[in-house]
Design goal:
The termini are far apart. The protein has two domains: about 1-95 and about 175-210, 2-Layer Sandwich (Nucleotidyltransferase, domain 5); about 95-175, Nucleotidyltransferase, domain 5 (2-Layer Sandwich). The chain has about 220 residues and is of the alpha/beta class. The chain has helices spanning about 35-50, 70-85, 95-100, 145-150, 180-185, 190, and strands at about 1-5, 10-20, 20-30, 60-65, 90-95, 110-115, 120-130, 130-135, 140, 155-160, 170-175. The strands form two sheets. Strands 6, 7, 8, 9, 10 and 11 form a six-stranded mixed beta sheet that branches. A five-stranded mixed beta sheet has the order 3-2-1-4-5, with helices on both faces. It contains six helices and eleven strands. About 30% of the residues lie in helices and about 30% in strands. A hairpin with a 2-residue loop joins strand 2 (about 10-20) and strand 3.
Length: about 220
Amino acid sequence: MKILAIETATEICGVSYIEDDNVIATVEENIPRQHAKSLPLFYEKLVADTGLKLSSLDGIAISIGPGSFTGLRIGLSYSKGLAFGQGLPLIPVPTLRALMDSGGEYSGAGLALLYSHRDIVYAQKFSCENGSIPQNDPSPYQWQDIEQNIKKMDQVVHWGCNQFIDDLKHVQEGNPSAEIISILAHQHFDEWVINKPYDLVPNYISPFEVGEKKH
C-alpha cells in the first residue's frame, strides 16, 4: 500500500510517503503562516526525491484537526486537489491521535494537548492497549480547567503549551509530523478511508464554544 500524507494542522508543514510499513521519505519544517507557499514546494521535493507518482497511490492522508483554522483548510484543499485529479480516496487522520502517538509507547492513561490561543488548548484522553485508544472526543478547554487532570495521567504529550507546562516528568513535547500521519493512515486505512471525500471538512472544533462546556 502506498500513501502520501500531509500535515498542516500546526506550525509544522510537511509531506511524507509510506509504502506498506516503510516510510520512504518526509519533507517538513516548522514554518508558521507559510503553509500555502511551502506545501506545494515540499510536495515537489518529495516527488523529485522519491519518484512518487500520484497514479500509483492508494490514497492521500491528511491531518484533519483540530488545529490551526488556516492550516487545516490549506492542507485539506491541497489534498483534495491532488486526490480528485486521480480519483484517489482521502484518509483523514485525527490530529491529536497523531500527536499522542508521537510521544512513543506508554501504558495506562494518556493526554494529548494542542495549544490554540490565549489560554485555550485542545485536549483528548487516550488509553494504551497496543496503541493509543481514544477515550473521548477532542475538545477545547481553558488551561485552568484541564490543568488538574494532567497529574492524573501516566503520560502527557503537548504541542505549543510550554508557557503552561510545569516541570513534570511525564509531560513531553510531541512531534506533529507528516510521518506519524502516514503511519496511522496505513494502520487504519480500512477504518478511516473516504472514497468520495467531496464533502469532507476539517475538524475545526471552534474554541469559542469553550465557555459552554461543563467540566
